[in-house]
């Protein structure tokens, strides 16, 4: 999972992926970033049998992203 996070961060910071999320004020919408990370992570983890899902706004759970 650390590799996925580092890769996502690298693409946001160094490969101009931030332009997909930032508004005119330079702020990103959290739900948009979560959806993109979720898609990337689910594709990367598909063959391992690991399933992840975004937080359900309860503040509880095993892993939130």
Describe this entry's structure for a reader.
The structure is a single chain. The protein is mostly helical. The protein has one domain. The protein has two helices and no strands. The longest helix has 16 residues. The model has no long low-confidence stretch (mean pLDDT about 85).
Oligomer: single chain
Largest sheet: none
Counting structural domains, the number is 1
Radius of gyration: 13 Å
- The coarse silhouette is globular
Going by helix content, strand content and strand pairing, the class is: mainly alpha
In helices, the fraction of residues equals 40-55%
Number of strands: 0
SSE blueprint:
Elements: H1 2-14, H2 30-45
Give me a quick take on this structure:
This protein has 65 residues and is mainly alpha-helical. It is 45% helix and 0% strand.
Label this structure with key terms.
2 helices; 0% strand; 45% helix; 65 residues; single chain; mainly alpha; globular
């Amino acid at each position: 999972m650390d590799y996925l996070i580092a890769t996502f961060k690298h693409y946001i910071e160094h490969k101009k992926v931030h332009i997909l999320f930032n508004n005119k004020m330079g702020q990103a919408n959290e739900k948009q970033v979560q959806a993109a990370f979720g898609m990337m992570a689910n594709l990367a983890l598909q063959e391992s049998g690991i399933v992840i899902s975004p937080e359900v706004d309860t503040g509880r759970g095993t892993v939130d992203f």
